[in-house]
Amino acid sequence: RGIQARQILQKGLEKAIREKLQCTQGKDYSDALDLLIESSKEHGKEMTMQELKDGTLELIFAAYATTASASTSLIMQLLKHPTVLEKLREELRAHGILHSGGCPCEGTLRLDTLSGLRYLD
């Protein structure tokens, strides 16, 4: 039953994603899937259909999951993609957020600093 439910969900997601990808008319809002697609394009790597489905599922279930679950998922993805992790570390170091040695929590974390983190965004 679980496998069948997953297949139905995957099929429905793929249909919705394909419709969204084919939609060329401008609209005055962006939903989470729009942001996911645009973010991947901006970083020079369009996501595969499977990656889009996985990302969409993550967004759906993250709304119901605990912070710990979402954090675990984030850590797993970063560990699967060490080059992404290193780029994040470089950006955090460049903005004085990640320190080598000493307390990583020195200083004040400010919203304007976070807003300047383009790769993290």
TrEMBL record:
InterPro entries: Cyt_P450, Cyt_P450_sf, Cytochrome_P450_monoxygenase. GO terms for molecular function: heme binding; iron ion binding; monooxygenase activity; oxidoreductase activity, acting on paired donors, with incorporation or reduction of molecular oxygen. Belongs to the cytochrome P450 family. This is Cytochrome P450 26B1. It comes from Macaca mulatta.
